[in-house]
Amino acid sequence: MASRGSVKPFVNFNAKHDAEILRKAMKGIGTDEDTILMLLAARSNVQRQEIKAAYKKAFGKDLVKDLRSELGGKLEDLILALMAPPAIYDANELHKAIKGIGTEDSVLIEILASRTCEEIKEIVKAYKKEHGAKLEKDIMGDTSGHYQRMLVILVQGKREEGVDESRVEKDAKELFAAGEEKFGTDEDKFINILGNRSAEHLRKVFEAYKKIAGCDIEESIKDECTGNLEALMLAVVKCAKSVPGYFAESLRDSMRRAGTDDETLIRIMVSRSEVDMLDIRAIYKKKYGESIYSTIQEDTDGDYQKALLYLCGGND
């Protein structure tokens, strides 16, 4: 599958050469932020790992530590995010979300609802290696109820594959019976079906559901559920329909609220830059009538803005 990312591997890549450029940008008085952000945003994650190794070999220093001490603020957050391998980055974001003061549920929801089964398995491994703990256990210690149970289902990374035609209608009817049709909601049915069926299967279920219920499944979830469970279910539904669509909406929310949610903005721009940023850009433009590029220009500034625009990869 051709990558729909905005960041592609740099063609004439030379890790040793890049390491030297970065060292020069950080050595002596003052830091050349421009050079750092232009170089790192134009390399793939795999290439950044090679630069890290070449830097240590040539200078006996840790590139990430040097970047941390030379950069500051949001630019530092963004550059350090680019330097982490994807699974480790996600594992660290989850760890921070769980172990910080109060649980950042929006981070748990975003990552666990949007990553593929393969990615989730890698994240679970990375979490154990980096933090010496089981992701599932940490989630259980910090959440409760049906919300907890749905997160645990997602952490298994065992979604079914393909479409089971014989079950589409049955699933739609069960969801309808579990929600709209009765007083009080049977959340177990919802979390089981939404947590375990494939995206292709769920899209068919949602079509069938609309015919039976006369409304979108999202409407029913908003009526029936509240709080974190509602947010998680909605994220899972949106990702089943379109992962880039989900991220286009999340990016819009991160910038178009009062005050920019930079943590979310950075996480999405970094984690989708090599996956589906081109699709996210196209959907965003169609849905909101302006490009992500122009929204970033309006909402951010300085070197931080420049780095985000490089990751965005162009104006639509």
TrEMBL record:
Pfam annotation, one family: Annexin
Keywords, ordered alphabetically: Annexin, Calcium, Calcium/phospholipid-binding, Repeat
KW Repeat (keyword) present: yes
InterPro entries: Annexin, Annexin_repeat, Annexin_repeat_CS, Annexin_sf, ANX5
GO MF entry, a single one: phosphatidylserine binding
Entry's Gene Ontology BP terms: negative regulation of coagulation
GO cellular component, one term: plasma membrane
Keyword Repeat included in the entry's annotation: yes
Entry comment, domain topic: A pair of annexin repeats may form one binding site for calcium and phospholipid.
Family: Belongs to the annexin family.
PANTHER family assigned to the protein according to its UniProt record, in alphabetical order: ANNEXIN
Protein's name according to its UniProt entry: Annexin
Organism in which the protein naturally occurs: Danionella cerebrum
